[in-house]
Specification:
Length: about 200
């Protein structure tokens, strides 16, 4: 039988435990609500908190340049609508590894090694798949840095210049109708940053 003096202490600890559990459940519920609002699962939403992102407004204002937009959605979605002439590199390809090489090829085709590397802007429908693609590139970059010898690995450069378009193409289309894409992208996309045959890049 419990000592009468011990009961208040046990009740106090029980209340504290219930309060802690209640806070934990509220935190999980809040995370779930935020994830749902952003159309992501909880793990992707948590990952997005440590992901470099750019808003549509920042792109429109020329806060980042030169940029190359890359669509990580499915070919079917890409056929329906895309931002300007952005190339398609589906998330499934990136997760399997060869999509990373596709991104490297896209960058190499547009810039020489002695010039400023463009900023890769990944986008999907709302942001979830872009965050996953960003994390995959980050993972490859880490392993490349660890295994790199004297030769610089290009994925290292890419990973340092990758951001996610916050809200994806849905947010873009709310602000920019399709016919205006070229006009908005012209001052910030990589090819449009080239002023003359001498290839002078606009500063960031």
């Amino acid at each position: 039988m419990l000592d009468e003096n011990a009961k208040p202490g046990i009740n106090r600890y029980s209340r504290l435990l219930i309060a802690i559990m209640g806070c934990g459940l509220m935190s999980v519920a809040s995370l779930s609500a935020f994830a749902l609002f952003h159309h992501m699962d909880i793990l992707t939403f948590i990952a997005s908190l440590n992901t470099k992102q750019v808003t549509v407004a920042q792109l429109q204002q020329g806060k980042l340049k030169p940029v190359i937009l890359i669509d990580v959605r499915s070919p079917e979605e890409y056929a329906e609508d895309r931002i300007g002439e952005s190339p398609l590199v589906p998330i499934i390809d990136i997760e399997m590894g060869f999509g990373v090489k596709q991104i490297q090829s896209i960058v190499k085709a547009r810039v020489k090694s002695d010039r400023t590397q463009p900023i890769i802007v990944l986008y999907c429908a709302r942001g979830g798949r872009s965050v996953k693609a960003y994390k995959e590139l980050e993972k490859v970059a880490r392993s490349s840095q660890e295994s790199a010898g004297n030769e610089t690995n290009k994925i290292k450069d890419i990973s340092l210049n990758v951001v996610v378009l916050s809200g994806g193409i849905k947010a873009w289309r709310q602000a920019v109708p399709a016919p205006k894409d070229a006009q908005i992208l012209a001052p910030i996309t990589f090819r449009s940053s080239i002023k003359s045959p001498s290839v002078t890049l606009l500063s960031e």
